[in-house]
């Protein structure tokens, strides 16, 4: 039988196609951002947390631009507006690369030759224990950075230290000298707290420590807090 005729004056209801550009754009943004993070961890490129979020936001912007001619993607506007303050906040710490992995990492070199010039972690707890190292004459430079988390460096009592710590948001504790806030940049120096058994091996250490969000800490090996937390010596 033929379908019933529509009521007089009521046009047939036409189903509008479901919007597909929004989910497609979000999926593409996740794929591109994930690829960028992987390349950063492989040290192919250097990306900070702010730059990673900016990549995601850029892909959303391209989706909105395409949506002006083809498709409907109004949901992307709300998502983009929510991400704008997040990207702005991330720009406060937009200097530390997302490399080195995630988690808790502890390095305990035993000789000056084993000390790396650079230690990096994307997020987590980065600890460099230099308490067992007998440094030779002349300065030894060490750089360490975490995008989000903590950097703790333990230095021997027998060496002089020159310290520089920078934090986007958080605090810097350089041998008891504490600064907290936003865009904290602090420097300090300290002589040895006790004489070395061999004056020829009483060197010095220069530390350049950076954290995006979190804490920078420098402790002497004899500090009771170090003994309790890490079991040094």
Question: What would you say this structure looks like, in words?
Answer:
With 233 residues, the chain is of the alpha/beta class. It contains four helices and six strands; from the N terminus they run H-H-H-E-E-E-E-E-E-H. The chain has helices at residues 21-41, 49-67, 75-90, 224-230; strands at 102-107, 118-129, 139-155, 160-174, 177-190, 204-220. Strand 4 and strand 5 form a beta hairpin. Helix 1 (21-41) packs antiparallel against helix 2 (49-67). 30% of the residues are buried.
Topology:
Blueprint lengths: L20 H21 L7 H19 L7 H16 L11 E6 L10 E12 L9 E17 L4 E15 L2 E14 L13 E17 L3 H7 L3
Parallel strand pairs: 1-2, 2-3, 3-6, 4-6
Antiparallel strand pairs: 4-5
Helix pairs in contact: 1-2, 2-3
Task: Explain briefly what this protein structure is.
The chain is of the alpha/beta class. It contains 4 helices and 6 strands. Helix 1 runs antiparallel to helix 2 and helix 2 packs antiparallel against helix 3.
SS content category:
alpha/beta
Largest sheet: 6 strands, mixed
Uncertain segments are none
Strand order of the largest sheet: 1-2-3-6-4-5
Strand content: 25-35%
Distance from N terminus to C terminus (CA atoms, Å) equals 93 Å
- Measured on Cα atoms, how large is the radius of gyration? 27 Å
Mean pLDDT: 77
Shape: elongated
**Element-by-element helix/strand order:** HHHEEEEEEH
Count of discrete alpha- or pi-helical segments spanning 4 or more residues: 4
Share in helix: 25-40%
Number of strands: 6
């Amino acid at each position: 039988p033929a379908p019933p005729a529509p009521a007089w004056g009521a046009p047939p209801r036409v189903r509008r196609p479901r919007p597909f550009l929004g989910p497609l754009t979000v999926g593409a943004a996740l794929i591109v951002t994930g690829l960028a993070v992987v390349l950063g961890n492989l040290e192919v490129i250097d990306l900070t947390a702010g730059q990673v979020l900016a990549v995601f936001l850029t892909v959303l912007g391209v989706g909105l631009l395409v949506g002006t001619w083809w498709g409907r993607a109004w949901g992307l506007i709300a998502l983009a507006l929510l991400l704008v303050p997040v990207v702005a906040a991330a720009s406060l710490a937009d200097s530390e690369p997302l490399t080195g992995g995630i988690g808790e990492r502890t390095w305990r070199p035993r000789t000056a030759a084993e000390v790396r010039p650079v230690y990096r972690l994307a997020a987590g707890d980065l600890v460099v224990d230099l308490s067992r190292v007998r440094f030779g004459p002349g300065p030894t430079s060490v750089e360490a950075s975490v995008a989000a988390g903590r950097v703790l460096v333990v230095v021997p009592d027998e060496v002089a230290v020159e310290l520089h710590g920078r934090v986007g948001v958080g605090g810097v504790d350089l041998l008891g000298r504490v600064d907290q806030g936003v865009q904290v940049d602090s420097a300090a120096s300290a002589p040895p707290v006790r004489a070395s058994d061999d004056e020829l091996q009483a060197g010095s250490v220069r530390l350049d420590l950076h954290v995006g969000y979190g804490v920078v800490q420098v402790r002497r090996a004899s500090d009771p807090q170090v003994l309790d937390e890490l079991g040094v010596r």
